[in-house]
Design goal:
It contains three helices and 19 strands. With 303 residues, it is mostly beta strands.
């Protein structure tokens, strides 16, 4: 995977597809998970390409799909539990049938400082009434030598005036297939920061933003949809749903809060058998997800 044409931001992050590496972990082997914090600050940052890909430690995902012989990057997602990611529903909801019948193949690319984490998507749970989808993943690259990182989540809703950071991956050009199981993906890790200007706690519209969401005074572009949105404490608050940017106006962007995904029952997770299915993120062992102030939720309802 290459970076942009700018020499200062160019990166080459290789990865090799393998069978589920958890199958080779010996009895008594240990996998550990740690929270990742990505802090927004008050610096006025417009849409820009991030030089330090390692800042996301594989938590930010790019979604690569292959359907009818065509390979393309659809959008972004964020890892929230072992083998569990959250994306925007409008990016993946048309792929569920293809995943089930085997005509569509989805691969997640987790961006790190020197390589890529690869994940195969084998389950998609699309939420009713929210632009959110939960992805069940199986790891498809070698195990890292360090702990796997998971986005730290907060249930606190940002207030008007709070600064947020939006991240996503935008591909450059078409995905090139070099050989069997060999691909070249060019693109950039993009970030954008801005302040919350409006809150729509009962949703903004019935189609794209039917659940609790925020308007943020910053730009975003195609490919970033489903990407993580972090607050000033570094915790995940939601995912990017859309932007109204035009030739005469930059932004705003709209962020769907993560609340409905915390109580949605889903199947998936990695390694296989790590937790009972179906389950919710709130019901997972606290060592397998990092959710701040989760006591404000019931097990099956939003706060």
């Amino acid at each position: 995977m290459g970076g942009s044409s700018d020499a200062d931001t160019r990166r080459i992050a290789p990865a090799r597809l393998v069978e589920d590496p958890a199958l080779a972990v010996p009895v008594g082997g240990v996998l550990t998970f740690e929270p990742l914090f990505v802090r927004a600050n008050n610096s006025p940052v417009g849409l820009e390409s991030l030089k330090n890909w390692g800042a996301f430690e594989g938590v930010l995902l790019a979604l690569l799909t292959r359907h009818a012989g065509k390979d393309e990057v659809l959008g972004s997602a964020v890892v929230v539990a072992p083998g569990v990611a959250v994306a925007a529903r409008h990016v993946v909801d048309h792929l569920s049938d293809g995943i089930r019948d085997g005509t569509t193949h989805l691969l997640c690319i987790g961006l790190t400082s020197d390589c890529c984490d690869l994940w195969r998507i084998h389950k998609i749970t699309c939420l009713d009434g929210a632009d959110l989808a939960i992805l069940g993943l199986v790891r498809a690259s070698e195990l890292p030598k360090h702990s796997l990182r998971l986005a730290a989540i907060t249930t606190r809703a940002p207030m008007v005036g709070d600064q947020l950071l939006i991240a996503g991956f935008r591909a450059e050009g078409n995905v090139q297939r070099l050989a069997e199981k060999s691909y070249l993906v060019r693109g950039n890790v993009l970030i954008s920061q801005g302040k919350v200007t409006q809150r729509f706690m009962s949703g903004r519209d019935r189609v794209m933003l039917p659940s609790s969401c925020l308007e943020v005074d910053c730009d975003s572009v195609g490919g970033m949809s489903g990407g993580p949105v972090f607050d000033s404490s570094g915790q995940l608050v939601g995912v990017l749903s859309s932007s109204l940017s035009s030739a005469t106006r930059v932004g705003p962007s709209f962020v769907t809060l993560l609340w409905p995904a915390l109580v949605q029952r889903f199947e998936g997770g990695w390694p296989s058998g790590l937790f009972e299915e179906p389950t919710t993120l709130l019901e997972l062992d606290r060592r397998l997800r990092f959710i701040d102030n989760d006591q404000c939720f019931g097990k099956t309802q939003a706060p």
